[in-house]
Amino acid sequence: MSMQIAAQRIGRSGAAFALTIATTLLAASVAHAGECPADKIKAGAREMVDVKAVGVTDVTLGAIDLAKQPAAIKDRELRFRKLTIAPGGIVPWHSHDDRPALIFVQQGEIIEYASNCAEPILHKAGDIRPEVFGTSHWWKNDGKETVILYVGDVRKDPHDHNM
């Protein structure tokens, strides 16, 4: 039964209640990114590792020169990409100190090894991970399923090919 039909049947106050319940259930079903447990957050918890990209494809789906937009952010590009990480694949160590990003896990599960977390962080399909100043990390697909990430970032250096 649709929300509109349900609202007609139970009246205004009942409709408001039903809408509140539906919103609460929807919010509860939305997955949130894995996070570092509060007691494991620590600056410099993980040192940089020299791992190379393995089993990763990185395709830019679109980009916008932000200097040409009303915000007029000189020397910045808003970029949207798709990363595909094969089982056993690695996204190498990189920093987001000058390149904020949002990562959406569309498929699979992947582990993040962050500089500011003393334990690995598991991200699952549906998670969104903000990557901001102070975030340096690398990722690994330890599963048997290919992981697909969609990445929106603001890049300064057009020659910066960090994942």
In words, what does this structure look like?
17% of the residues lie in helices and 40% in strands. It is an alpha+beta fold. Strands 1, 2, 3, 4, 5, 6, 7 and 8 form an eight-stranded antiparallel beta sheet that branches. β4 (109-114) and β5 form a beta hairpin. The protein is globular, with a radius of gyration of 20 Å.
Distance between the termini: 45 Å
Radius of gyration, in Å, reads 20 Å
Share of residues in strands:
35-45%
The helix/strand series, from N terminus to C terminus, equals HEEEEEEEE
Which shape, going by the Cα principal axes?
A: globular
Average pLDDT figure: 84
Helix vs. strand class: alpha+beta
The helix fraction, in percent, is: 10-25%
**Oligomeric state of the chains?**
single chain
Supply the number of helical segments: 1
Total strands: the figure is: 8
Low-confidence stretches: 1-32
Which key features would you list for this structure?
single chain, 163 residues, alpha+beta, eight-stranded antiparallel beta sheet, 1 helix, globular, disordered N terminus
Topology:
Elements: H1 3-29, E1 54-65, E2 77-95, E3 101-107, E4 109-114, E5 121-124, E6 128-131, E7 136-140, E8 147-155
Antiparallel strand pairs: 1-2, 2-7, 2-8, 3-6, 3-8, 4-5, 4-7
Concise summary:
With 163 residues, the chain is α+β, with helices and mostly antiparallel strands. The chain contains one helix and eight strands, in the order αββββββββ. It starts with a helix and ends in an 8-residue tail after the last strand.
